[in-house]
């Protein structure tokens, strides 16, 4: 099981797959005890990095690139779907947010704090396991 999914945005109007990590942590780890927290993190990060061919990402180890998500497991939950009109030509799409995430850090910079975007964009495009 690899509990993440992407269709490259092809169905962005109809599904909200970005909520899957929250569902894995809150439902399969916390509420149902189907996965250990360590196993969930491996499946959400390490296994995905390995499958995509990234050798220096996916786990927190010295010398490896790391994006870090800090959350309160007891407070994690998916919020109801909403409709946003923020695509070109004011088209609609489904949006589903979550609560319980304290900080999301990319390349050492906080990009979200308590659910609010900081405006920082320190991420880099990766191709074939390398920053472009």
Describe this structure in words.
There is one protein chain. The protein is an alpha+beta fold. It has one domain. It is built from 2 helices and 10 strands, in the order ααββββββββββ. It has helices at 20-31, 37-51; strands spanning 68-71, 77-78, 82-87, 91-95, 98-99, 101-106, 109-113, 116-117, 126-127, 130-131. The strands form 4 sheets. It has a 4-stranded antiparallel beta sheet with strand order 1-6-7-8, with no helix packed on it. A hairpin with a 2-residue loop joins β7 (109-113) and β8. The chain is globular and about 45 Å long.
Report how far the terminal alpha carbons are from each other: 30 Å
Poorly predicted runs are none
Total DSSP E strands: 10
Please provide the ordered H/E string of secondary-structure elements: HHEEEEEEEEEE
Note the overall shape. globular
How much helix, percentage-wise, in residues? 10-25%
Largest sheet: spatial strand order: 1-6-7-8
Give me some keywords for this one.
132 residues; 10 strands; 20% helix; 27% strand
Give the SSE layout.
Elements: H1 20-31, H2 37-51, E1 68-71, E2 77-78, E3 82-87, E4 91-95, E5 98-99, E6 101-106, E7 109-113, E8 116-117, E9 126-127, E10 130-131
Antiparallel strand pairs: 1-6, 2-5, 3-4, 6-7, 7-8, 9-10
Helix pairs in contact: 1-2
Compose a concise summary of this entry:
The protein has 132 residues and is α+β, with helices and mostly antiparallel strands. Helices cover 20% and strands 27% of the residues.
